[in-house]
Amino acid sequence: MVNIPELVQQTNGFSDYNPMQQLVLQAPWDGKNMVVASPTASGKTIIAELTGLNSILNKRKKAMYTCPLRALANEHYTDFQDKYSKQQNIRMAVATGDMDSSSKYLSQYDFVFTTYEKLNSLLVHRADWLQQLGTLIIDEVHELDSDRGPTLEMIITKLRILNPKLQIIALSATIPNSDELAAWLQAELIQSNYRPVPLKEGVHYESTIEFKDNAREKTREDDPIEAMLSNTLEKKKQALVFANTRPRAESLAKQSAAVVQKFLTIEDKKELVKIAKKIENALESPTEQCKKLSALVQNGAAFHHAGLVQTQRSLIENGFRAGAIKTISATPTLAAGVNLPSFRVIITSLHRFDFGGMVPIPIREYRQMAGRAGRPKYDSAGESIVLCKNELEASAVMEEYIRGEMEPVSSQVGREPILRMHLLGLIASRFIFDTQSMDDFFSKTLYAFQYKNTDNLFRMLRGLVKELSELGFIEGEENRFWTTKIGSRVAELYLDPLSAADLIAALKKMDLNHFGALFALVDTTEARPYLNVKTKDEALVWEELQSRWAELPITSSEAMFTDTQLVQKFQTAKFLDAWTNETPEQQLLDDFNIQPGIIRAKLQIVDWLAYSAVELAPLVGAQQHTGLLSRMRKRLSSGIKEELVLLCELRGIGRVRARRLFNSGIKTVADVKQASVENLAKIIGTAVAITVKKQLGAEIEKGAKKKIDAQLKEQKTLFDHS
Ligand SMILES: Nc1ncnc2c1ncn2[C@@H]1O[C@H](COP(=O)(O)OP(=O)(O)OP(=O)(O)O)[C@@H](O)[C@H]1O
Ligand SMILES: [Mg+2]
């Protein structure tokens, strides 16, 4: 037997386990289910290491780590991989994408890192290796009480049925009713208030910081953000500022940059120039946002939100970790689980936009944001300050958020639209096959455990069975039902059954064209939120919509009067159409008021829907559309007209370079093969020209880049003088 506590302690180089971790080690951690409720930064990841490694090395069973964010799954995967993979001969993998696969290859790995969505999709695809799982670690388990809560609740309930011996380790900093959760999971409860780095929580108003313990500190009398930031930088510390919208995060970064630049050293500046350059060139051709961010980063400040592409986000996180970037203004994209050197967290708003207005955020979310300050790896103290307008607001925040009790985590399984999708998935994977098994299954959920009375839920489920049967996704009767072929596919594709039904109706239309097909993909729950139309443009877009009505695969003519989001859907389809017709990215951003990161996130979903449509078409007698849909997928993925599809398959060639090549007469891959590297270099730059040629099997001699660059320069000079 391997002594796991010793191995983990030595590998991490910790002198001791902390009090929370010791509580765990005194409990039957090596076999029982466990709920660990302890503050942010208290080292819960170590519990994942202990239990995961124990399962693999001592029990010869697989382990899995699951969490709500891709970024978090990746971060922990990389860290675990570095520490244990080679050293202990443990095969590790991270799986967060491809939702239409049982990912059989994963069965070769010992430790798999996933998001909740991927894990649920593995269950819907009946990945049988999940039965060999010894330990499942669920991070941020308070997410049970969120939009994705039902997915997590389904995962837990299914796995406990499928694999009764599975050890479940649930971790969270923000779960006040952890005893209830532990009782549901029949788990040992470890509760601790230990936080290795003290976190001082406070409010700022009228040039004063007031802490929870009533201590006060004066700040400068100018703008509160500037005052708080310079106060942080004077202490040679870094700050993370939270904003509730993307534009606010950007304006805060701009304001921060003016303060931060005065504190930069020569080394900082050198480093920042490098990061800024990479940020500016993260896309094929830089957009205004890239330039804006890059300029701010040169001054030591950055913004971070879903509008950025992944490379830019990582560059910022790493630049901040390395200490060159002094402050990040972020939306809650950075609120959970991450370790960053932010001595101070500044929270500018405790409201967010939801249900058409501003609503207060839960205390749980506040605690997660505050908890990003003072992380043991970087700081020996931390502060989280909420900015308030006046004393009145400050005392309310102090009472409600800072001194207030967090709301208990409660099951969200009773929400009908989500339940509809999960029910179909459960029938498809045969967890449910009649009314009895349906009631049995749902009696095991947290919902049943918390609410005791399940009458409403059971009634809703019966209604949904009827509805799914009317949609043609299941057949049979009360004492035995199963999914139809198309129903199984809809479940596997992870589609909302109502969206799938609309999509199928659209596919059955004979005369589907590119724009109509784009609209059909947009007209789904998955494609939400739709793009907004500016009030001043609304009449115009509405007029265009009416004139193009015949192109749209809408089966009910009433939609024009009943669908309140029709204009937004049309606008979203127009955006996708413009993207696939090579409208330059910057123009798209301006015309549709959208950002690169959002474009990519939208495209990913639409690609998924297009893939689903390709898969569903033959099952509903609509094979004639598969060609159109497959071509559309390619056009969507690169944002191109059809004639560029093949060129874009070359690595390094995106919509901009492909168009340049095409317009210079290089229209096919064969043309690229024939063209000289010098000629290509003139069109798409030397570095890319070399990569492309190499892909096509050409031998490129060492030092070629320098030579070609010199030639191009010479030609340019000649040209300039002629
Ligand atoms: N026993 C220990 N001694 C020293 N450092 C430790 C110890 N245990 C954990 N740490 C360090 O503490 C830091 C925070 O740990 P971790 O990210 O696991 O916190 P967490 O409890 O998961 O917080 P959150 O709830 O915010 O996700 C890590 O950098 C980790 O290396
Ligand atoms: Mg954590």
TrEMBL record:
GO molecular function: 3'-5' DNA helicase activity; ATP binding; DNA binding; hydrolase activity, acting on acid anhydrides, in phosphorus-containing anhydrides
SMART domains (UniProt xref): DEXDc, HELICc
The enzyme's E.C. designation: 5.6.2.4
GO BP annotations listed: DNA repair
Helicase ATP-binding domain sequence ranges: 25-193
Subunit structure, interactors included: Monomer.
This protein's name: ATP-dependent DNA helicase Hel308
Organism: Candidatus Iainarchaeum sp
Lineage, top ranks: Archaea, Candidatus Iainarchaeota, Candidatus Iainarchaeia, Candidatus Iainarchaeales, Candidatus Iainarchaeaceae
Gene: hel308
